[in-house]
Amino acid sequence: MNLGEKLKLRRKKSGLTQEQVATEMNITRQTLSNWEVDKNYPDIDSIISLSKIYNLSLDELLLGKIHFKGESVMSKKLSVEEIKTLIKTHYPDASNVKELTGGLASQTYLFEQDNDRFIFQAGNLKGFQKEKFIDNELKTILPVRHVMEIHQTDDKVVYSIAEFIEGDKLFDLNSQQLLDIVPAVLQTFETLESIEIDKEGYGYFDSTGNASYPTWIDFIKAAYNNDIYNWSSLEEKGLDSDVVKNAIQELKSHISCITSTKKHLVHGDVGSYNLLAKDDQITGIIDWSLALYGDHLYDKANLLFWNEDKLQPLIKEVKKKYITSDETKEVIYCYMLRIGLEEIYNTVILNEAGYDIEWVANRLNEISKGFL
């Protein structure tokens, strides 16, 4: 995304017209318009003025707030005292309540009672129900959290309590540990690939384990089905629609390469915050709210899309192991486009909790132009 596009995006996010900004800066509307189409560029004093008008730092204005997947945290819905009260409703002698970071859609705390450790999460009912489904169905195959109970308060706050899993998130490992854990992650992928699914449908599944799309290709194509993903309000929400239009056109152009009819269990959000490790082994796979049925390469595409700095050793080996032909690379390309489109749709159109949308748009644009 070039400077002009960034300036236009920041103005629209601020809810201002070109006339309003021009008046504030004592310049003509045409001058501002020229900056936003890269006909010419503002000087440093003008950039400083723009950052003040949009209430942004210079880095935020020019570079964007870049968060890697999992690094942002949701706005707090409950205070620590409220969380402690809920915990003590079920565990009166709970102690050492400590916040754990890493989720956009939940608040996560560790607590102890009688020398045992547990996880408290406040968040989404459907997400917790899916986590419990995975626990019930696959606990003998995968290292998943045992969800003990799910509750909802009178004021609609939903929370779960689960057993604690020993291990550190990959995000918290040092460079050597990240190198050492790669074989275990690849083995975990192989385990996921080996799981046979006998439930109905493809795509995201519900708390009963059933999904709504009749085929995998229907799920992928949904991103440009106007009856399912209505992109009409994109520009007025402050995002340049060309990024989405180009990605959709690319997806349509390459969709025929997707021929898989196999039904694998796909985590849907695998990354440095959702894998736990100890002694060079994966001890936990957590946060299954985005889990779905489909091609296992979708998880690999997710890793490649978010391209976390911390996971570069793993990403390198994933590319080596799974991108073994031009055909496979094209399939993963389509999945990356689908992942980026969905993130933009959920964040911009549906106003759901998400990651820095400018980074997502830049990444989607980068993939569209340079992955193949």
From TrEMBL:
It comes from the Bacteria. Keywords: DNA-binding. PROSITE patterns: HTH_CROC1. This is Helix-turn-helix domain-containing protein. SMART domains: HTH_XRE. InterPro entries: Aminoglycoside_PTrfase, Cro/C1-type_HTH, Kinase-like_dom_sf, Lambda_DNA-bd_dom_sf. Residues 7-61 form the HTH cro/C1-type domain. Signal peptide: none annotated.
